[in-house]
Every structure is written in C-alpha cells, then in structure tokens.
C-alpha cells in the first residue's frame, strides 16, 4: 500500500520550490521510487487521489512508466486525462507512452 502521508510530504515540499530548483530532482526520484514499487497500488492510488495530487505526480509519469513497463499503467493515466481534462496531462501521457515503446523497441532477445 502507498503511504499517503509520504506522498503528501513530498508534494508539499515540491510545491514550495521554484520551477528551476535543482532539489526537484530528488523529490521526483522519491515519487518515482514509491510509485514504481507496485503497479496495482500505484494504479489504485492514482485513480483515487485528488486532482491536485495528480497534477504534481504527473511530473514523473514518464519515469514511472519506464520502470513499470505496463500497458495497464498507461491506460490508467489515459483515463485520468479524460477524467481531468483541465490538468492538461496529454504531454505527460505521451511521454509515458513513448517511454514504454522505446524500452520495448530497444529490447533484445537472446537465444
């Protein structure tokens, strides 16, 4: 299960930063780590989190997608784009989809 208090703490710290603060990378890495641990928990969390949280979490959709390598995750964020059109998630979703496709395309099978 995803610790909502941990997510809240990360998002609150992120909200206080300027857009060019180098510390943002550390917070992004924390979010990616949490949301890359378990696909089912991640999808459940995203489907039930607030629009505000979703806005901040969407910054790392691409990295989560790369780690999870999951069509279900992509479907989840595509549905969230429909649910919250005012969040403008289309670019985040496109990057997440591209991340999945690039990893699959770049994989090599050894015989």
Task: Give the overall form.
Answer: globular
Oligomer: single chain
Helix % is: over 70%
Mean pLDDT: 88
Number of helical stretches of at least 4 residues:
7
Main β-sheet: number of strands, strand sense, barrel status?
Answer: none
Number of strands: 0
Rg value: 14 Å
Secondary-structure element order, as H and E? HHHHHHH
Unreliable segments (pLDDT under 50, ≥5 consecutive)? Answer: 107-111
Q: Give the N-terminus to C-terminus distance in angstroms.
A: 38 Å
Which structural class fits the helix and strand makeup? mainly alpha
Number of domains: 1
Strand content: under 5%
Description of the molecule:
The protein is built from 7 helices and no strands. The chain has one domain (4-105). The radius of gyration is 14 Å and the shape is globular. The chain has helices at residues 4-15, 24-36, 39-48, 51-57, 61-68, 71-83, 90-106. The model is unreliable at 107-111 (pLDDT under 50). Helix 1 (4-15) packs antiparallel against helix 2 (24-36), helix 3 packs parallel to helix 6 (71-83) and helix 6 runs antiparallel to helix 7. The protein is 72% helix and 0% strand. The protein is mainly α and 111 residues long.
